Amino acid sequence: MNRALTSARDYRSRGWAPIPIKLREKGPTYQNWQNLVLDEAGVEARFARPCNVGVLLGDHSGGLVDVDLDCREAVEIADAIFPATPAVFGRESNPRSHRLYRISGQARTKAFKDPDRIKAVKISGGDGAKDEGAMIVEVRGTGSQTVFPGSVHPSGEAVRWDQEGEPADVEWPDLLDRAEAITRVVAASRRAGCAANGTRNNTLNKESFCAGSALKKLGLDAARIIRFMADAGIRAGLSDAEAMATARSGVQSGMKADSAGPPNLHVPQKRPWEKVGEDQIREIITGTALEPIVGAFGAVTVPPLPLCCTLIKALPLVGCALSQRRDADPSEGNLAQFTGRIGKGEQLAKLRIETAGGQVCNFWGLVVAEPSSGKDIGGVDVRLSQERKWLLASAGSAEGLADQYVRLGNGLLRVGELESFLDTRHWQSKACSFLIDAFNKGWFSTALSERSNSVPRETDFCYPNLIASIQPAIARRRGMGLLDNGFANRFLLGNMPALDWEPNCSLFGRQIEDAGRALDAYAAKSGTIRIPQGYLRDFQRSLLDLNAPFHGYWRRLKNEYGPRLAVVLSVLRDDNSALVELPPDIWPRVETVCWWLYGQAFQLFDTLLVDDKEDRLERLLDRMRACIRQHGPVARAYISRNAGRGTTAKEREDLLGELMIRGEVREENGCFVCA
User: Fold this and answer.
1) Is 607-674 assigned to CATH 3.30.930.10?
2) DSSP symbols for 166-182
3) Which segments of 215-372 are extended strands (E)?
4) pTM of the shown model
5) SS3 content of the chain, % helix, strand, coil (to 5)
6) pLDDT in tens, 247-278
7) Pairing between β-strand 168-169 and β-strand 94-102 as defined by DSSP bridges
8) Could you tell me which of 59, 55, 67 has the C-alpha nearest to residue 10?
9) Residue ranges of the chain assigned to CATH 1.10.10.10
10) Which end of the chain is more exposed for a tag (fewer CB within 10 A), N or C?
11) Which residues contact 359 (CB under 8 A, 6 or more apart)?
12) Do the beta carbons of residue 158 and residue 147 sit within 8 Å?
């Protein structure tokens, strides 16, 4: 049975203009298709063989218009914004994504795109106007066509009817107003869903107001949009009750005709690490040799991956280039090995930073991201490190990894999931001891095996560079132990949000070549870098004045990574010299990068700290609840003795109050019983 022919006959009988399209394709490839209006014989001839069925829209089909919903969010809320129509179709994985209407008069196709996505693509060097991922909804009229049911989508799914009736009659301006409204609502929900800690409530309130303003002149029911915006707040980390209350307040205020803006909420002053965004960091690395390396990591997707992934992965690769061992001086001969004139660690480094006896530019980077987030797509780090013989095997025993470091000295270790290294019961955790030694001293000597005949592993030069990742759920399970772990807290952190990206299908070999040349420029550097006394002093004073948490982490960021970042940012793209000269303006730029890096760590650790507090609260409530259930009615003194270990009197009162608010416990004659 020729489904395309059957469908084309049906569409022509309804006054629509069907046109043939190659099977499993979405657009015609022949000229002047916009004016191909087939009679009955033409339909029979053109659709004789299997193909897809397109329908010309607008004038040629009696004012037929297709509202093409191009993103999941638009499909989700379309019923709340667009008029009901009995003509709706899509495919199995994307149902109800096309809605048909009939209008009178002229109707030219108009696309509605996410302005934030367009801006992000432009910043990364792409053409935002041509980015298909920015499309939210397209209202198609004269001059356009759509592949209709009876066709096969490029994915292999059949295009099918969800409702096969006559299109509803609408006015063209009203349809455009609704398309604009759904675009503003979707963009607002995306911004609210990506809000950082400390800004989530206010961002949701502001964006909900924007969503309500978009609905105001349409006179729509706000209930569905309130739920939609509340879901965005939940994605950002708010509780369901808090998100609903904030979304309701914002949307309803936005829909009031006399509202001039979102209701005033207390907006806390931004702390320094909250003021630095990706745009500032991109501006700082522009023109440096770091820029093409970061660009290569980002070029594997459309739109490019964010800096919280690309920069965190680029720095360890640059670290491999900068932490090379210097070549042996033939004039020294073997005598130097026995007299100790060569030394260990940083004394053997090709490039050495003169702070606290010396340090070398190796980096550890940890990306916190969900699986299939795009963090590993493209294998840029593998390609670039393999070409330069820097890549270590990422799996194997601690002994095996130690043997590789004895051989390579500063190779790149890629850890797909950090949890195995953090779990003391896992065999890979034994590798942490010599890696920490190497981070601190630049050499190690360790006996990893408990066998009596095991051979100690040791080397006089080892500066490991690590790229690792961890899933957010695993990070939450580890809690604040991540910060206390001597291995984990040496990583620069990047918190990668959930993104809507696609693999880049165009050639990006040039970006890889540019990155390789930049790495070779870094690898050519040698000598000793002098660091001024009091570097990043303002950064440290600001953190102390703010009583900033995670003291040990920001100390390491300032003392150890700060000078290394100064070296990395001082090498320009066209710099072919062997020496590194720190420019006069380097420290303000390094300070800005340090604020951004601390902000990334703060987002993670602050969330873990909240989670730890909530876990402790629930454990204490469980203990108190069990005591009252088993022995009640009981007095306060009995609860304090038997269920109050490790708590203050105020905490116990708060815990009892929480149980009563929840309706699980009630007070009778000064004693407590389970409700």
Assistant:
1) no
2) PPEE--HHHHHHHHHHH
3) 301-302, 351-354, 364-368
4) 0.57
5) 50, 15, 35
6) 988 888 888 755 455 544 444 567 888 889 89
7) parallel
8) 55
9) 607-674
10) N
11) 346, 352, 353, 560, 563, 564
12) no
